[in-house]
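Contributing new records

If you add data, match the layout below exactly. Sequence lines come first and carry their own label; structure lines follow with theirs. Keep one chain per record. Anything else will be rejected by the validation script.
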Amino acid sequence: MTLQSVMFTVGVVLVGLLLFWPAAGIGLMWNFLIPVAPALVTISPGLWRNVCPMATMHMLPQKLGISRNIRMPEWGAASLGLISVILLFIVVPMRRIGLNVDGPLTAIMLLSAAAIAFTMGSLFEMRSGWCTSLCPIHPVERLYGTNPALTFKNARCNLCEGCSNPCPDSTPELTPTVTSGNKLQQFLGNFLVGSFPGFVWGWYQVKDYAPNEVDSNAIMTAYAWPLVACVVTYFIFKIGEYVLRHKPDARATLHRIFAAAAISTYYWYRLPGPASLLPDWFPLVSHMITTPFFFWFIVLRAPKVSWLKRPVMASNYWSSRFETAANKNLIRVAPGKA
């Protein structure tokens, strides 16, 4: 709870800086917080999920007792998952044509996301509306967090209401392709694994455009590089899947290799802090450390733990929803009163 409050306060301060002291806000967000996030999501996604300020906003209606607690249907989760991936592929290139240099615009984006997270929490049950469905960071969590080093107690859920199946926080060896079986979710997960290394590489081939430089050519360039590159790596990925179609273990390794390639590419180009303050030799040393580390961490280590420990089920009766589709609409009751 203390860390949640600290991170939420950091988020509020960050928005204030972006609005009233843009240079400091931009430096804090894009030079320190965001560059650290992928490593944190890779090594311990559960820690991030416990303290994420957007998750705090999303769960606030639950804490206040004003959420309608509508159960998220499978088609709803699949549709929101599609929107989250689309948002990811829209917002990241936007950094090159505004967000990286415009503090107030970045603040508006964060406030809009917070408002949507709060609204989804007011409507849907537990974490199903934003954290496990609509959040554009969640697909990246599932990609990078396939093999966490640490697991923590779930600081968001005292009891498991079965709001998402599979629960991303409590499913060991979770990858983007582990879904409820919905074909759309399966395609999105598969596409993200194969496309993201190219998307990250393509994004780094584009410069930041100042506000007066943003025109149709700049917008086209900002989106063309990552989107074309992501199609190329996805094509390569599908060839690899076809070759290994009869070898499930090898295919799983291929998925982890592409996840490692994506985050290694990210840190090949970007490290926390202003690049101008780093010595000339530092990038080479960084390349020699980060790339082998992430391939070892994601590909070679055996998956062992989930992001967070699953809380006790809200009722023994309700736990049967995981066993039969017919129980999806059962009314949940307090423990011991099933």
